[in-house]
Amino acid sequence: MKNVTIKDVARVAGVSPSTVSRVISDSQRISKKTKKLVRKTMKELGYHQNAIARSLVTKKTNTIGLVMARPTQEAFANPFFSEIIQGIAVVTQKKHYNLILSSTGDYHEEQEETIKLIRNRRVDGVILMASRSNDELINQLLEAEFPFVLIGRSPEYQGIPIVNNDNIKAVYDTVIYLFKKNYQDIIALSGPREYIVSQDRALGYQKALAEHAHKNQRIIYIDDFTYEDGYQGTLKFLESNREPFDAILAFDDMIALGALRAVQDYGFKVPRDIGIVGFNDDPMISYLRPALTTVKIPINKMGKEAAEMLINILNNEDYQGEEIILPTELVIRETLQ
Question: Is residue 210 part of a domain?
Answer without folding.
Answer: yes
